[in-house]
Predict the 3D structure of the following.
Amino acid sequence: MTLPGLTSRAMKQLVTLARILDYRRLALTGQTLTGQLTLKQLPRTRGALAADEAPVIEVSLDFAEDAQRRVRLKGRAAGQLVMTCQRCLQSFETTVAADIAGVVVSDDDAAASVPREDEPILAGDGVIDIHELVDDELLLALPLVARCHRPECRAEYEIEAPAEQISAGERKTNPFAVLQSLKSDEPPQR
Ligand SMILES: [Zn+2]
């Protein structure tokens, strides 16, 4: 299998994270998972991006058991992703990082017993889908409104802003104006 655009060194370093794992066993032995995922393994995140290039998402996840025998998960997923700027509609590259932290639970009852300051991470019965978890967390970490940092894009946007305000003002007075014209056009009653 060849991956276009990747050097042999990068190929050697690419360690795809396993998908379905026994999280309790990982916590008991205090494992740290490190590896990479590509957008092929993250369909929801890929759907929100501009280009289907092959950025590599670096993932690191610590599993630990706390005094109450809860499975605590802490880690990070980060990569350089290509998004579409909402101002100029050009694609640009941006660093997206998701900090992942929470208590892994297998059902809603267990989620309800998680301390209020912790985030429950819903998993299957005894197993967690690592790809799905990273996909969800990365999707949440994407900027709500993607904007590039090109100065010309910024300049264009700042010129357009007052025009937008004027048109918003016009829109506000429009219904009234329409009413007025309706009134004046009303045929005299007989
Ligand atoms: Zn832009």
User: Anything to note?
Assistant: The two ends are 86 Å apart (CA to CA). Residues 64 and 187 are 80 Å apart (CA to CA). The longest strand covers residues 91-105.
